Amino acid sequence: MINTDAGLDQCVSSLGQVVGVDTEFIRVRTFYPIPALYQLAGDDGVGLVDAQVGATFDSLKALLLDPVRTKVIHACSEDLEVMATHLGVQPANLVDTQLAHAFLGGEFSVSYAKLVEHYLGLKLDKHETRSDWLQRPLSKEQVRYAQEDVAYLRPIWERQREAMAEAGRLEWFREDMQRILDAPVATPDTWFETMKGVWRLGCRERIVLRNLVRWREQEARRRDIPRAHTVKDEHLVALARCDRLELRDMAGLLPRRTAKRYGKVLAAVHRQGLLDGTPAPKATRPLSRRDGDLVRTLREAGRRESDRLGMAPELLARKRDLEADLRYFRSHDELPARYHRGWRRRVVGDIFAEILSRGS
Which of 90, 101, 192, 282 could connect to 106 by a Cys-Cys bridge, CB 3.0–4.6 Å? Predict the structure, then answer.
């Protein structure tokens, strides 16, 4: 275990130009993930960095931000959140072995263990996946698992990189990798847009709900607890439907403990929402049957091209992506920016544009 800045400095300096990276964390009763461990695999083996110690982690931050050294990770979304909240960084020159596998004809959301078996012919024991990574000292089984979970990333990436380069898809992969890194940071309004049934609300109700959702986000972050441990989505929607709301009304709308803790502030936020003069947030209506048929046509076309190229169909035919593409086309009379250039433009840009133009 590496638990000092000096030890971390020494580890980082010995890793080489290609570094495997993984994190272990706990997120059960908190809003933010609690970092427990950073695993780093390099030329001299694996280093396990204790994320719970009072270190600066400066050399780790410098490594992650280094645009020259390649960082290899698997299924990066949660790891990126840990690094952002704990270290305040977003890695540069990052590659994701899960995404790379999709460009080589494999499953879109394949597990790390399956990649190890597929590319290296080894089988891993994953029994420590849900263990308590905050306990100290770690058990021998935890240490072995933590080492294995990062040790094979570099050889997997080496084989994937060679295969993608041979197939002419390395730049395709890098394009999608950058899109992941450039994705906008989630906001309270992002959560509002995902809530069920919002499209059924009137303009004033949506304004009130937006205010309630923003308050909840602040409260959950302040107390570092999951959103649902404050006020659940369905209860916020029920409050937003009310023409007026007083503290005495809360008992019939909220669970008793929730009403007791938050009733007064929720009533105040509700009143503020009624007086809010900003435009109502848009609500995404479910697609019509006709538009649903268009999405199915897009998916079929995307799958045909995926099959022809020998890639995972989700890269071109994921339903939620195509629904968003259709909505964008309806508003802008063109496909989103990712179809204007790069590999998607060449592979399906004209095909998708023709299907959507006919459907309009």
Answer: 101
- Helix, strand, coil tally for the chain in percent (to 5): 60, 10, 35
- Tokens for 324? 């968003």
Return the closest-CA partner of residue 338 out of 354, 322, 360, 358: 322
CA distance 306 to 308: 5
Tell me the C-alpha distance between 352 and 344, whole Å. 10
Return the bridge partners of 71, or none: 19, 94
CA dihedral 82, 83, 84, 88 (to 10 degrees): 140
pTM for the full model?
0.93
Q: How far apart are CA 4 and CA 51, in angstroms?
A: 10
pLDDT digits (tens, 9 = 90+) for 181-236: 998 888 888 899 889 999 999 999 999 999 999 999 999 999 999 999 999 999 99
- What whole-number distance in Å separates Cα of residue 115 and Cα of residue 96? 12
Question: What residues does 24 pair with on adjacent strands?
Answer: 37
User: Tokens 């800045």 label which residue?
Assistant: 5
